[in-house]
Automatic annotation (TrEMBL):
Residues 422-435 have a biased composition (Basic and acidic residues). Keywords: DNA-binding, Isomerase, Magnesium, Metal-binding, Topoisomerase, Zinc, Zinc-finger. Pfam families: Topoisom_bac (PF01131), Toprim (PF01751), Toprim_C_rpt (PF13368), Zn_ribbon_Top1 (PF01396). This is DNA topoisomerase 1. Its EC number is 5.6.2.1. The record marks H31, R140, R141, D144, W156, R295, R483 as: Interaction with DNA. GO terms for cellular component: chromosome. HAMAP family: Topoisom_1_prok. Residues 414-435, 624-645, 816-856 are annotated as: Disordered. Gene3D superfamilies: 3.40.50.140, Bacterial Topoisomerase I, domain 1, Topoisomerase I, domain 2, Topoisomerase I, domain 3, Topoisomerase I, domain 4. The keyword Isomerase applies. CDD domains: TOP1Ac, TOPRIM_TopoIA_TopoI.
Amino acid sequence: MKLVVVESPAKAKTIEKYLGPGHRVLASYGHVRDLPAKDGSVDPDNGFAMEWEAYADKTRQLKAIADEAKDADTLILATDPDREGEAISWHVQEVLRKRRALPQDVRRVTFNAITKPAVLDAMAHPRALDEDLIDAYRARRALDYLVGFTLSPVLWRKLPGAKSAGRVQSVALRLVVDREREIEAFKPQEYWSVTADMEQDGVPFVTRLVRWKGEKIDRLTIGNQGDAEAAKKDVEAGRFAVASVETKPLTRNPPPPFTTSTLQQEAARKLGFSASHTMRVAQNLYEDGAITYMRTDGVQMDGGAISAARGAIADRYDASYVPDKPRQYQAKAKNAQEAHEAIRPTDFSKDRVGTGDHARLYDLIFKRALASQMASARLERTTVELVDGSGSHGLRATGQVVLFPGYLALYEEGRDDEGDEDSKRLPRMKEGDAPAKKAVQAEQHFTQPPPRYSEASLVKKMEELGIGRPSTYASILQTLKDREYVTLEKNRFIPQESGRLVTSFLERFFDRYVSYDYTAGLEESLDDISGGRAEWQKVLEAFWRDFKPKTVEVMEQKPSEVTAALDEFLGPYLFPDKGDGSDPRLCPACHEGRLSLRGGRFGAFIACSNYPECKYTRRFAQKGGADEGEDSGPVTLGTDPATGLEVTKRSGRFGPYVQLGDGKDAKRGSIPKDIPAEDFGLDWALKLLSLPREIGLHPETGKPITASIGRYGPYLAHDGKYGRLSSTAEVFETGMNAAVVKLAEAAAGGGRSRGASREPLKVFGANPETGAEVKLMEGRFGPYVTDGTTNATLPKSADPATLTLEGALALLAERAAKGPAKGKKKAAPKKAAAKTAAPKKAAAKKAPAKKKVEKA
């Protein structure tokens, strides 16, 4: 019997059908081991020896693989055809060797598509494990571990509130922060454009002023309204005739088929998918045999696939759409490894696969791959120059005509930031024609700052710089969002306070390790290991030799020294020049002290040097410019009629708050974000200061129910139990009946009772196989999908709003295949039996539990 190990249960099922009798196919469910999240997992003093530990939730699967391997003649490792796939095969082999279950005959096979011909061909051409790829994996894993477990503790101790740092994650964050700095430093420049609406033979077209008073006009030449109005009058007064008509042929070639990064970029532009969602959907399409492997930076296609694509083009269009020779592409990205094909359909006769997001992504992949083998588009660009009678003023009109669409008939590549390319069609004109002038406009414009990065443009930038690898981009971006270093607004990355502070800290103390060139150079070294051109331990030694002493040096500095260095480094950002010669650090409250950066338990903030006499503070991210919402100190709202004390509105490092009276014991209350600023006054302040509000005594327990606002928002409290409120207004409006109901619902929803009735967040429809209704529910540990029998928790990176029925079914199928829930149900009788059995048997049951984690 031959044992075949793949990564996913979906692949295992399909491949077992292809291989037939004599083969047993099992899934590893991805990686089976990793470096434990503790000190000492990588030992730099012992040749960077690594201590691997099996995932606790893979114990059952590893046992199943080991049990089958003991009876197998041959082990065939058929994990994915990339570095991670090679690593998984190596881990499985090492685990089986450790358990003395490794067959003598071990083979490694790879296939780029899960189709019967591809799988059978791979089985006929096995090879040994690629030691260079395994070394590259170990080097990357060790490097990421050493950076994370060495640098993150420095952050935690020297920069309160920081969460983590990573070798590539921190550099990607720096890109986002650097772009924000460019935007903040940008000074808009005024300019004016003068255009004329004209008409020839009944066809309207637009011209723009390109020559005025004998001088060439560039975009920024006319910088004020006076000049613009003067130019407008000259155009209105002139009689313009065609001086020249120039027509140039243009050819546009199709883009290559998708790589991992270009697929992520285009799916973000055209479908609005996040990088992580794109990769999940692509993974499903790959496992279904619809597309080739989706982690690749190669742009070439297999010869057979090119022939199939050309045949599909000929069937869909006429022969003119098929170029004379097949197109061959080469990757332009830095560090590109072209070991794999581009992402393409496995069958070009299928132009539709699946439904929902799967169908949309497949359609994109199909059209891009097919278009890559189509004829070029032929266009004609026409430029018409018009001059007035004096020859002093000139207008220009441009237009573009598609003579032959070629690949544009099927596909046109999207752009991150559209330009203002003029592709309008012009009427036929010849030299000497005098088109009718209908109207002239002078319009004011301002230059725009560079746009914030979208997921697509950030992935593109990282690829251009050679930072990270395409297969890791999705997880890098997700980590930045999970750490709350950035937020996504209108599909653009905005760095948060914590992200800016971490980046500044790393730039100040670890500048080399967040530099773009150094990171790209390290990637090249790691790629050299993959290609057998470098030894992995030597690459790690070269890195560790400089990195470790630097972390020790920073760790030895006092927190106050670190804060002082950051205060100086961030001075231009935190205290920008006001333009009037005044000191930007002067405290706006006491007008004597100077402002500086301080470190606190919950992060950095700005404070006055005259503390404690002056208690002025502001948040780190709240800049001090006159037009930047500067904190002007306490604002008196009025007097509390009950105590006669003054009520003030203030701003601290955690945001705005109200205070009753003065002194150390003064009562304070945070101002929630859902109270409109224009509505906030003394009434609201007194309400907030009066919290908690007692609603009354619970009719069943006789204990008080209170409403208040806490760290996680408004809530109800009763006898040590809590219930959420949806808004600040509810804190003051909720009555006894509503409070009792909300507390009961909270108890039912948060407890272990399965009988609680809760409304689904979303109903997807019926499972096509069982007919059971599939729903999205809010659970104690986050959203999950259920069909009434199986519950599957959504991954943290999943977006519940974009989840489809197909995605829900895939999660349920994967969960059902793992079978933990079934195992838990069986455990109860054993436990019960153990209670009645002799003590020796109870002790014997505990022994296997200690073997949940296997080390190698």
